[in-house]
Amino acid sequence: MARVVLLAGASGSGKTSLCRRLGVPVLALDDFYRDGDDPALPHRFGIVDWDDPTSWDGDAALEAVRRLCADGASDVPVYDIPTSRRTGTARLDLGGAPVFVAEGIFAAELVMTCGRAGVLADALCLRLHPATTFLRRLLRDLAESRKPPLTLVRRGLGLARGEPALVRRWIAAGCRPCTIPEAERTLRALLASV
User: Fold this and answer.
1) Tens digits of per-residue pLDDT, 143-160?
2) Which residues contact 39 (CB under 8 A, 6 or more apart)?
3) Which CATH superfamily includes the segment(s) 3-193?
4) Is it the case that residue 194 has pLDDT exceeding 70?
5) What whole-number distance in Å separates Cα of residue 72 and Cα of residue 16?
6) Claim: this prediction has a pTM higher than 0.85
7) Beta-sheet strands, E only, within 25-169
């Protein structure tokens, strides 16, 4: 049975880049967003609030984590952020890896359930200065044409203001705060111990 490391952090904090460097199997929790035309989506800044947990299908994400832990593979959605919709599914196979990372801004939402199920290897949240994540997020989102530039700036400023509260919420949910180098050391040690 595999175990999961839940990796939370603000959009632009470096979660995906860290996982790529480590070469660890990754469940991208952002792929569990609801489609942009779902009438139940929350709104803020005049647009869908993609940082509200109700914009995300946490039950489906949890089921994928459970399947990966139990079976080593799961079909997961493929989500296209620029069009705000799922475009298909893909098979995520751990290839026998005993540990994988589930990363995304909603990772902390899974800490309690994964802990109770005995599949939680660790829960971390990346903590950077909000100005750093704002700039990293803006550059990434502009390069990927995720949304119109003015929307990205307006949303990014709001997210930067709210980031300290998010980090406090993730810590309260059971994530340990860390810098990128601290998270990398923790993950490398965990991977080497299994």
Assistant:
1) 877 778 888 788 778 778
2) none
3) P-loop containing nucleotide triphosphate hydrolases (3.40.50.300)
4) no
5) 21
6) yes
7) 26-28, 43-44, 47-48, 73-80, 85-93, 99-103, 120-126
